[in-house]
Design a protein that fits this description.
about 350 residues, Rossmann fold, Hypothetical protein af1432, two-stranded antiparallel ribbon, 7 strands, disordered N terminus
Length: about 350
């Protein structure tokens, strides 16, 4: 489900809930209930699909059945507690002996229990409480460690001349500022910051002969270079703490008109995190000195970006970008220099 303004609004983005159950009737009922309350819903009977959506797409919550033929809900939630710790995890079951169920669960792998017979009355308030009340302090406690890990990777890339560390720091800080302008939560802002920091991490898997070639690339070399978003995602899959960076890493070269790569996504199919980064990355590029041209002024850079709103850049994100004064961008840059 999406609002008239797209998959987010200035007041925050639509929450995404995954429902996992092997009973199709339960799935349909939960889908109707949650969609009617304004949630984006993925309803599935496949545990692997459910985990993929939570981990790779960053769903906010999962509501899982306990007894299923392929994989028990207690195992799904236990694995997600490790790989996607910030997702709210709700066990919805026909069982009523919660003390017995609790003995099956790995500690801290479930946030709440809801019986199926009470789900129509209790599921919505349970989710509302979990999603509104997830302590941002937990996110802030892990953010410094995660940010440090991401910056270490960026430094390695910079040492190999793949990417400018200063560029990565600027686009991360500016993306964070733009996400804040759009009203994102602290945890979602961290997602955007990490993705911007690591946007080109996949370049480490591209041959130096291609990446550092001073002359024009051949068709085959361009094909190799365009693999770096997917290469980046494959690297991050092995680092659970950095899964939240994946939307930008994979989609920062997509375009609203569908002419980007690697998947040719169009419009709102491109994650909002990537749509934020695209404008910030273009702004940094335009305002930076290049061997073949001088750096553009703030006004000239904004004019170039405005001319590409629609086919290349998201209109709503661009409106938020335009609402930020030039002095604010300069202040962010100044703060980076002090770090």
């Amino acid at each position: 489900m999406q609002s008239a303004q797209g998959p987010f609004s200035v007041g925050g983005r639509i929450k995404h809930v995954v429902v996992l159950d092997d009973d199709d009737t339960v799935l349909r009922a939960a889908d109707r209930l949650l969609s009617g309350a304004g949630y984006k819903v993925t309803a599935t009977a496949d545990p692997k699909r459910a985990m993929e959506v939570v981990v790779c797409e960053g769903a906010d919550a999962i509501v899982s059945d306990l007894h299923m033929p392929q994989m028990g809900g207690h195992l799904v939630l236990a694995m997600l507690a490790h790989s996607a710790p910030r997702a709210a995890r709700v066990l919805m079951t026909s069982e009523t002996d919660f003390s017995r169920i609790a003995n099956m669960m790995v500690p801290y792998s479930v946030h709440a229990f809801v019986t199926k017979k009470d789900s129509a009355q209790k599921l919505l308030p349970t989710l509302a409480e979990l999603l509104a009340g997830r302590p941002e302090e937990n996110e802030l406690a892990i953010s410094d460690e995660t940010r440090s890990l991401a910056r270490s990777i960026v430094r390695v890339l910079a040492m190999r001349n793949y990417e400018s560390e200063a560029h990565c720091m600027r686009v991360a800080a500016w993306s964070r500022r733009l996400a804040s302008q759009l009203g994102f939560s602290a945890s979602h802002i961290l997602d955007v910051e990490l993705g911007a920091l690591l946007h080109d991490v996949g370049q480490i898997g591209v041959r130096d002969a291609v990446l550092l070639k001073p002359s024009e690339l051949t068709h085959e070399e361009w094909s190799d270079l365009r693999k770096h978003p997917d290469l980046g995602v494959s690297l991050l899959r092995d680092v659970p703490a950095l899964h939240r960076a994946m939307p930008i890493v994979q989609c920062h070269h997509e375009r609203r008109d569908g002419k980007g790569y690697p998947r040719g996504l169009a419009g709102n199919a491109i994650p909002v995190e990537a749509r934020i980064f695209q404008i910030v990355d273009a702004y940094d590029s335009l305002c930076s000195e290049r061997p073949y041209r001088a750096a553009k002024s703030d006004a000239d850079a904004r004019a170039v970006i405005a001319a590409s709103v629609g086919p290349q850049f998201d209109p709503e994100v661009h409106s938020a970008f335009e609402a930020i004064e030039p002095d604010a961008w300069a202040a962010v840059t100044h703060d980076i220099a002090k770090e």
